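Appendix C reproduces, verbatim, an entry submitted by the partner laboratory led by Prof. M.T., so that reviewers can inspect both the input and the predicted structure.
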Amino acid sequence: MTPKFQGVAVTDFFMGMKERNVAGTTEPLKDARVTIAGAGGLGSNIAIALARSGVGHLTLIDFDVIEMSNLNRQQYKVSQVGMPKVVALKQNLLEFNPFIDIEIHQVKITPDNIETLFADCDIVCEAFDNPMAKAMLLDGVTNFYPDKPLVMGNGMAGLHMTNEMQTKQQLSNVYICGDGYSKGVEGLMAPRVMVCAGHEANTILRLLTKQPVLAE
């Protein structure tokens, strides 16, 4: 008997989900491995974009649980308040794309576990809201994995113009997305957080499909 999903043959359902994807991206994306450091405003939005696009293997890392204050920008539901972010995010992602593999770690990233946590991925995605944590991850990844792409976010706060968001190449394998100046102290709202997350996700997809990230 042909395996079915929602009453449709599994292979037909899978290909139906890819019908509107950019031609030639399905194969490289389904075999790709991305590890996302942080599952808050940036991380949850990036993860959804990558899952919907068909990135086949995602690893989510975050020690935190969902709070009410997260709901204005992070991709969680009221019913998930109090749950570990990585558990809830995996639950949500599999509703968007049940054909991907998701590994979760409810741990705090430190200099001592960076080498282990990011060993198996093709690309590291930084999605912290703490500048010290961003710097720590940058130092660790570039030290242990200097040839591995690292995509980061910097500046998505407030209600400034979204056109100020840019993607820049900081080092040979480090890409930074955001406006570069806004600080979280002025408040974080869904639109600009999602725009920055979109920049990060699109950068990752371009890297995985061997396209130049920046204009020649």
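Residues 33 and 57 are 5 Å apart (CA to CA). Additional entries are available on request from the coordinating office.
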